[in-house]
Amino acid sequence: MGSVTGECSEQNDHHSSQENHTNAQSTRECQMVDYRFLKRDYHHRVFVNRSLALEKIKCFGFDMDYSLAAVYRSPEYEELGFQLMLNHLVSKGYPQELLLYTYDPTFPTRGLMIDTLHGNLLKVDSHGNILVCAHGFRFLKGAEILEQYSNKFIQRDDTKRFYILNTLFHLAETYLYACLVDFFIKCAKYTSCETGFKRGDLFISYRNMFQDVRDTVDYIHDSGSLKKKTLGNLEKYVMKDPRLPVLLSRMKEVGKIFLATNSDYSYTDAIMKYLFDSSHGPKSGTLHVSWHSYFDLILVDARKPLFFGEGTVLRLVDTESGKLRIGTYTGPLQSGIVYSGGSSDMICDLLGVKGKEILYIGNHIFGDILKSKKRQGWRTFLVVPELAHELQVWTEKSRLFEELRNLDMFVANIYKNLDSSSNERPDITLIRRQIKAVTHEMDMCYGKMGSLLRCGSRQTLFASQLMRYADLYAASCINLLYYPFSYLFRAPPVLMPHESTVEHAPQDMSCMESVLDNQMNKSELTNGNHQVSWKNDETDTSMEEEEK
Hints:
Layout: H1 2-31, E1 47-48, E2 52-53, E3 59-62, H2 76-91, E4 112-115, E5 120-124, E6 130-135, E7 138-139, H3 142-148, E8 162-165, H4 170-186, E9 191-193, E10 196-199, E11 202-205, H5 206-222, H6 225-232, H7 234-237, H8 243-254, E12 256-260, H9 265-275, E13 297-300, E14 315-316, E15 338-340, H10 344-351, E16 358-362, H11 365-376, E17 379-383, H12 387-396, H13 398-415, H14 429-446, E18 454-455, E19 458-459, H15 461-469, E20 472-474, E21 488-489, H16 497-500, H17 509-527, H18 541-547
Parallel strand pairs: 3-12, 3-16, 12-13, 13-15, 16-17, 17-20
Antiparallel strand pairs: 1-20, 2-21, 4-5, 4-8, 5-6, 6-7, 9-10, 10-11, 14-15, 18-19
Helix pairs in contact: 1-17, 2-4, 2-5, 2-6, 4-5, 11-15, 13-14
């Protein structure tokens, strides 16, 4: 009997050894695969800055405007906002001739800064280096920029002088300010000076113009005129995606969902009814349900970013009238109830979740992403609708990116054999002109202000903020539909220049195979089975270390 057991044991060991070898061989083959062919269609991709295990998320939070399925149609919605602001400025005394301007969606991009002293629109990198400078609709050349900004550099934290235009709502505001500057430059009645325009004893400073534009933006939002026009033609201004109810219903199967919007209840209700209005439920053949049923908690009048700090009083909303009920709400979470105000701490208490168990999905770098990340430790998903166009250019114009890289390599090759003893000074004037021309051609593929995320090979301020504060980002939150809720979003390795430009030493492949075999054997002993585990543990330390 003992010999039979011994034979079985030997056979098992032999089969185990064969299986280990097969698994190790499979691992090596996987490592040799070109992973570009394993990725999803880029239209459906979610991109990763910090690793996130989706199965650890217990709660999904949404902003509404521009976030929940990237609600507003562009450029129709920006055109509406621009026209309302222009009309208001004229009603307050600005020249009637301004009404001749029409919105041009190819000019503005997010992430620009207004210099309220000189009236310029600036695209900068994360350090404050100026990448692009426009005065009205005229783009300044290098020498002109140097006259106003020594070293082509600004102090980004001088918030009294520089105002950042980071949100999608800022697009119309950006274009309106450029129109005002352009108008007064061309108007013969006014004389241009360093900080504004003169007409007799009157002086209009760039700072005053900026404040007038800001006041106008506040007016169209606070007065409700923008919302009224939007609700008057929802099909024109709001995109409706039939996949949205499907996404939320699947999310609710694995966790809780909340909505936190700065909009009031009446507007929120109208938009959400339109988004979820269909003849059936989330699946064909199921009954239609109210949009409220997709959320465990609905919170309006959030007043973000204040919401992520001390917050405001939590009150109940009368969903029949849209009015707030008197008194502060202090009770438990109630099904079907809509709340007003509150704070992020209250959301955690009401839903019974904590920081890193929440994935918050929004479009506002500061109001949604930065504050929820730094103050609460929530995991963050930034919706970047422009990413669809950015990716289209990136893929269709790959020739230009390759040409720019080749020019950089050509310059490096010229200097390759020169050192500090060399008196030779290579003439790279022509190459620098070529680099400038290719960079400009690339930028124009995106729009007149260039890409949201880069200028040639240099990243913009917006790009650096996106990479720092957003764990995940995509053109739409709908892209989460294309991933299982057990998915591990794994951040790609970020190489430093000394790593990305220096080749690894040649590896002895036979030695590597031996190491892989040993690792596989150890894995079998540890796991107690013959299955290879591909699941990596989630690591959040990168963000914590960065914040420290």
